[in-house]
Amino acid sequence: MVDLRAIGGSALTDDLAVHKGRTAEAIAAGIPVTYVPARNTVFLGLALGLAETQHAGHIVAGMNAIDFSGYPDCRPEFVRAFEALTRVATRAGVEGKGFRIHTPLMQLDKAGIIRLGLSLGVDYALTHSCYDPTPEAEACGRCDACLLRVRGFREAGVPDPIRYAATSRA
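RESULT FIELD:
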């Protein structure tokens, strides 16, 4: 169990307001308040430790650099740097075995991710992307993640199967 609230510094881990109703341009500009400091570094570090103990040379991660909110640890440069780190920070790396980080979603837009998920049988009714769900766990419909999801479903040409608390979405 990893509790990133101990690190804080984000609207997702602290008592900070989540951005709502922003334009696509505003979402794409800068690093938002929902950035969790070093989140993917922490998760990949844990995955790396497990991979090494299991003698696995491959790690798969779900970062995306196309339709995302400007997080520095969702970029190809971060993944390449982490992959380089694995070669100097682990026994396997020092012994020349190394690790490969796979990011199959990295260059897909949200519509592409949705289409891929559908082709793999993902039941999107069981998912939501919301940064600020209601107490009943309903997606807000106005945060950056909801707006990106709504746009992705629209561009994929398929209905989003979840309900949103806010009915006016981008």
